[in-house]
């Protein structure tokens, strides 16, 4: 006889404990990573405004900041649920799902994959003369583990994706804000966020940013497929838990 038993019913405390620990230690991790990023950058860039501009010009830093805010928010929700458990998702959970699915996961995936592809092909595509102003271990803190933490986040808790209109507005707003910031940094410092942009003419640069926008949407779709693969579609989750173990008797 074969029995399908949902993992969450058999071990009801495992997933919340793992997920809550991931939120707390993930927030601590990104807080330390961003702090060390600016500490080491300050050795090279002493001016406060220039330090801020240079320190925030990469998409990976934006992704790390977004993930830090998200994980702090999740930690607050975890503490609230300990004091006053919620039987059904409330507005705060809807906000959490929106931030994670529309902003954090796509930006983490795009920043990790694109950075390391450019870095492995030719560091000059990112840094002028290939000179990284941060030590390699800090680069790993920012660009290697952000997507890993997001994969673990999806693997330990299901989420309901917002409607496509809301998600697309969120992705587009994030994209416009970053492109605006990139041009602001270039206007003030004379440097593009990525050195490869200096070698592009205007039409190619426009295509570069359009490709970046498409990649953000691709990250959103991949996140949706990954979440559905682990937990089922939104309709399936309303009927039964997706994650199961099979016991043969």
Automatic annotation (TrEMBL):
Residues spanning the membrane: 20-38, 50-73, 103-122, 164-185, 206-226
One Pfam family recorded for the sequence: Far-17a_AIG1
A single GO cellular-component term on record: membrane
UniProt entry keywords in alphabetical sequence: Membrane, Transmembrane, Transmembrane helix
- Chief location category: membrane
Top-level taxon in the UniProt lineage: Eukaryota
Cell location: Endomembrane system
Quote the InterPro entries the UniProt record gives: ADTRP_AIG1
Reactions performed catalytically: 13-octadecanoyloxy-octadecanoate + H2O = 13-hydroxy-octadecanoate + octadecanoate + H(+); 9-hexadecanoyloxy-octadecanoate + H2O = 9-hydroxy-octadecanoate + hexadecanoate + H(+); 9-(9Z-octadecenoyloxy)-octadecanoate + H2O = 9-hydroxy-octadecanoate + (9Z)-octadecenoate + H(+); 12-octadecanoyloxy-octadecanoate + H2O = 12-hydroxyoctadecanoate + octadecanoate + H(+)
Membrane association type:
Multi-pass membrane protein
Q: Which family does it belong to?
A: Belongs to the AIG1 family.
Q: What is this protein called?
A: Uncharacterized protein
